[in-house]
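Following the same procedure, sequence and fold were stored together, as reproduced here.

>
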Amino acid sequence: MNLRHQTLFILTQLVFFTEGRHGGHNGRVREETKSLEELYAEAIAEGGDLLVYHGGDLPDAEDAVANAFREAFPQINITIVVDYSKYHDARVDYQLETGTLIADIVALQTVQDYPRWKREGQLLYYKPAGFSAIYDGFKDVRDGAWFSHVVYTFSYFYDTELLAAEGLQPPATAEDLADPQYTDLIASSYPHDDDASLFVYARYVDYYGWEWVKRFADRQVEFNRGSNTPREAVASKRKAIGLAGSAPGGIDTVRVMIGPNATSPYLSWGQRMAILRRAPHPAAAKLFVNWIISLEVQTTLLAGSSTRTDIPTPPGTLPPWRIRQANSLCFQRFMEDRANIE
């Protein structure tokens, strides 16, 4: 075998190995063209089971998603296990290391895990239908190793009625939260326990300095574990202001400081999702990711939190990736700097 033929042979074997490792694409991944009905049939033929690991605070946080999927595909036995992302990624790493993988899909806040898992060859290269419509900053553009299916937002929020009862005006900026008039009125998640909460506080430090932290520490803030806790404190009328979590919905008197006119930095990030390369149920996993990113789901179940660029936002609003104060891409860089965070 001459040198030219030997080189071609080596390159051919390299391509074969890479494609086998990542699902047969080697960077030439095309969007799925099969219909949901075809994918459903394949998932049934595979056995009809699916296990999703999803980051979140409460065990029932993804019940609406699971129930909607069951209604659409009743012959698929879906289980969505919700736990803190920092626990789920450790579970996945352990299962991969020990050859005991049971999860098919991982949808986590720990966005820094996905480039690492990709480098390690642990993610399936796959682009569901509609992948091209997802904001480029929220996906692995070239290979489809991951994408974001939903946007979550953390900021500060308040109940105007409760503040008025105290004779107080709402805080105009996050800097005002350190004002003595708001003492004993604020609930927050622990910033050291949740990286998204930590990011919000880190941005406040960048903007207002460590003196703000010293003054804020005197406000007798109620700290609890879980980004759900400030929302629950304000929704139950126990506290007037919530911080470093998501705001309660459906309460007319609650205002949340987000959007193009936000006076302070906040966080809107894309929750990353991927199919594991050694997933026990890859056909069911493909069905799920095609369904979750579909226009129907993104405009109904996930309306207002879509990662797709082809879905118009309500008048007067912008998608988070077009709002500097939302820090969507800054958060991804922040999460990758583990030495600084930990």
In short: The chain has two domains: 22-152+268-317, 153-267. The domain at 22-152+268-317 is CATH 3.40.190.10 (D-Maltodextrin-Binding Protein; domain 2). The beta strands are 49-55, 77-83, 105-108, 147-159, 186-189, 222-224, 241-245, 254-256, 267-275. The CA atoms of residues 13 and 19 lie 10 Å apart.
